[in-house]
């Protein structure tokens, strides 16, 4: 995020904006291609977004000049991971992303 802030400062006043897109799980062929489709299928439906939903959120954020957007439930909650105790965060993540 620091790099994004630096870019935003550099382009300030030029009409150019910089937006970081931080989606959660997106329903694409990535899971199958990466061999982790089973992991994605364990996620509840409300935690997965379509590519159309993510694209719409990204365009809206760009139009509004937002620095960052995390569409969907997981994307909106992701920044909380920076502040959550690792003792709580890691077991929760392992439930859906077994190591």
Task: Please explain how this structure is put together.
There is one protein chain. By secondary structure, the protein is mainly alpha-helical. It is 53% helix and 8% strand. The strands form two sheets. The protein has a two-stranded parallel sheet. The chain has a two-stranded parallel sheet with strand order 2-3. The protein starts with a helix and ends with a helix. The relative contact order is 0.18.
Number of strands: 4
Task: Return the structural class.
Answer: mainly alpha
Percentage beta strand: 5-15%
Largest sheet: 2 strands, parallel
Q: In one word, what is the shape?
A: globular
Order of helices and strands: HEEHHEHEHH
DSSP summary: helix tally: 6
> Strand sequence of the main sheet, in spatial order?
1-4
Low-confidence stretches: none
SSE topology:
Blueprint: H1 2-11, E1 20-21, E2 26-27, H2 30-34, H3 37-42, E3 49-50, H4 51-64, E4 68-69, H5 72-77, H6 86-96
Parallel strand pairs: 1-4, 2-3
Please provide a brief summary of the model.
Helices cover 53% and strands 8% of the residues. With 99 residues, the protein is mainly alpha-helical.
Keywords:
globular; 6 helices; mainly alpha; 99 residues
